[in-house]
Amino acid sequence: MKGKNRIPIWNTTLLVILVLMLSSLTAQAASFSKKALEPTVKVKGNKATIRWVKRSDLSGYKVFQCNELGKKRKLVKDTKSCKITFKNLQEGSTSYYVVRGYQEKDGKTTYTRYSKVVTVQVCRKSTLKKFLLTALKPVGSTMYVWGGGWDKADSGSGSDATRIGVSPKWKKFFQKQNSGYNYRNTRFQIHNGLDCSGYVGWCIYNILEVENGQPGYVMLAQNMSKNFASRGWGSYTAAGKVKDYQAGDIMSTSAGHVWIVVGKCSDGSVVILHSSPPGVQLAGTPTPGGKQNSQAVALARNYMQKYFPEWFEKFPDCAKGSSYLTDYSQMRWDLSGKVIMSDPENYRNKSANKILRNLFRSR
Length: 363
What we know:
A 6-stranded antiparallel β-sheet has the order 12-17-13-14-15-16. Strands 3, 4, 6, 7 and 8 form a 5-stranded antiparallel β-sheet that branches. A 3-stranded antiparallel β-sheet has the order 1-2-5, with no helix packed on it. By secondary structure, it is α+β, with helices and mostly antiparallel strands. A hairpin with a 7-residue loop joins strand 3 and strand 4. It is elongated. The chain contains 8 helices and 18 strands. It folds into 2 domains: about 80 residues, Immunoglobulin-like; about 240 residues, no CATH class.
């Protein structure tokens, strides 16, 4: 019985050939993609490695040094490997790179798009003493300003927190204030002072960077201790699990405050550096048992009165509440010298009194 819909043999053969040809063309078209590579970078000490995923459609890869916008590209290496390592990088240096893959076929070279810019940032080495000396520079001459240290968009570091040295505007603004200063009236006057995260971000910038305008370290105060620990700078301890306090510890609370430990006293109270209304100053916590007139408060008061008399005359209060010993998470610096920080003066094992004495002799 004849089938009404039977396809002649020659038509079937032609159809198969067409399908095979289309499949071959599709395979050839899919054998190369201009999609950009997605490199990642890992920096450890003075060594940095940029890696990307190998692609079977590519013959090799070219790595270019460039500016932060990906322009002014200069070829660094043409390689078949999927990584490039830079050694003996200069402390405090920042460099930028893009990667591009290529395919060589039938005497023709075809390129992928350039990758996004990869930033290689090598931190400077520092010491606990240098960190605390840096943190002392705005003390007694810088008002607390909500948003101070942030950019206008309130999204991160502003120009004041990415500058080397203190801003001369801070002291000028302080000298115009009296004991009735109310930070609520100066909100977002960002160039006139620093808030808590602006202050700590400025301190970090000034120990790690060598020039103005590099990416900064200002962020929400509650994120600082955990964020800094995640960068490999030290260890993290959650709020409620903090057992002790040592020089240089960075303390953050979910309520939105951050401060720096100077040292602990024999009665368990802690001398701190922070920016809190009215401004940047030394202060002291109560004892763990709640005694308000603690050794730390007495030390902070003595040093503020002696070394910052103009400030102390306007703002003599150097005491902070018990929440400073209960509600904060902690980032403790790695002092091995392999990352950022070391402690040749052995501050970590000294009392607040001895640390302050040594700091103020060195100012």
